[in-house]
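mind reviewing this stuff:

——
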Amino acid sequence: MTHSGCDSNRKVGENQPYCYGIFDTLQFPPASYTEAFQIATDIVYSSVLVMATMNWRTINIDLLDPESPANFSIATLSPAAPRVSASEVQSLASQIKQLLRGGDSEGALRGALENPPYGGDAAAKEVHLATVVEILQSLKQSEMSPMLSRIYESEGGVEILDVLMKYLYKGMSHSSKPSSAATGSMSPQSTGFSQIHSRGGEGGGQAMSVLLSWHEKLVEIAGPGSIVRVMSDRRTV
């Protein structure tokens, strides 16, 4: 009697792994312990042959994990953000700079941090980055901690300071690169950091110093948790 798990039409060794035909000539149940042992030996041996002929390294195990990014779009992890054009960001920047020129530095900083252009393109985000950094550079070091404390204690203050942390890191990544403002290859309106580099003789080093000072004060107020939240947030500025 042929084992129910095998195809009775398959022949031993006929272009098939050995395991497909090992039961074709065996009778069930086994007549003796010797035959039962032989069956077990054949099963183990055939299994080894199958494993030897398969390249396990070619199996994409991520496809077997339902939580793997291979089985769903990573974009679904990010909250939907409304589309923002560069012209809209430029208009907001003009309003914020009016507050800054009017002496309302805290209002200008709040206005910039409460409206990050998550849904904007690269140009829109660069314009807003330049606006935020211009505000940060306009403030004295003695004003940093009191202003951050007031924002932190206000409604939504934690989220606002998390946005500030994002801009500090993005600003550091920009100011650590060689400045192209000195060569005239970048207009002041293109990224905003050409404006930053043009201030003072130290260029990007001066901008980095300002951003590091803000980072130090921000961690003192908001704590290291702000860094963790920013690193895990998929929304970028």
Notes: Confidence is low (pLDDT under 50) at residues 1-23, 179-202. The two ends are 71 Å apart (CA to CA). Residues 99 and 108 are 5 Å apart (CA to CA).
